[in-house]
Amino acid sequence: MFTQTLCVLGLVLAVAVAVPIDSYGPSLISAPAISYAAPKLLAAPAISYAAAPAISYAAPKLLAAPALAVSKVAVAEPYDPNPQYSFSYGVTDHKTGDSKQQEETLVNGVVHGSYSLAEPDGTIRKVTYTADKVNGFNAVVEKKGVAVVAKPALAVAAVPTIAKLAVPALPAITKIGYAAPAYVASGYGAHY
C-alpha cells in the first residue's frame, strides 16, 4: 500500500513539474506537446506450482501426574533459654603507640564489659559498662594519667638567595609629545 501511494505521489509530482506555468496566461507561452508511451510488456511464461502436501500434527497427550503425599514436618530449632558468651582482645603497637583492650561477657541476660584505649594526649581512657533489659546500658568512664600538651613545632623555611643578573644596556628612550585633540562642537552635545 505504501509503495502504491509513493508511486502515485511521484507521478503527480512529475506531471506538476513537466507542465509550464505562465503567470500572464496561456496565450503568450506555447509549450510543445509532450506525449509518453507506455513501454511494451513482455508476456511472462506461465508457471504453475503443485499444491503442498497436507501435513497434520496431533496434540501431545497429557498424562496425569502421580499423586504424592507430601507432609511438612516442622523441626524445632534448638533454643537456649540462658545464652552465654565471653570474649576479649587486645592490641599493643609500640611503633605507632596504639594500645587498646576490650572484654565482654553475657551471663543470665546481663552484659558486663570494659574497654580501654590510649588517647592522643597520653592519657588512658577506660570504660566499664553493664547492659540488661531492665536497666538498659550504663557506663562509667575513667581517665588515667596526665595529659601532655605538645607545643606545635614551627617550621622555619630557608630564604632562597637572589642572584643578580647582568642586564645589557638598553637604548635611550626619547619622549614624544602629542598635542591634545581639538573638540569641535557639532550636532548633539554642542552645549558641553
TrEMBL record:
Q: Which domain of life is it from?
A: Eukaryota
**What's in the keyword line of the UniProt record?**
Cuticle, Signal
Keyword Membrane applies: no
What protein does this entry describe? Larval cuticle protein A2B
Say yes or no: keyword Signal present. yes
Q: What does UniProt give as the signal peptide span? A: 1-18
- Source species of the chain: Drosophila arizonae (Fruit fly)
The top of its lineage is: Eukaryota, Metazoa, Ecdysozoa, Arthropoda, Hexapoda
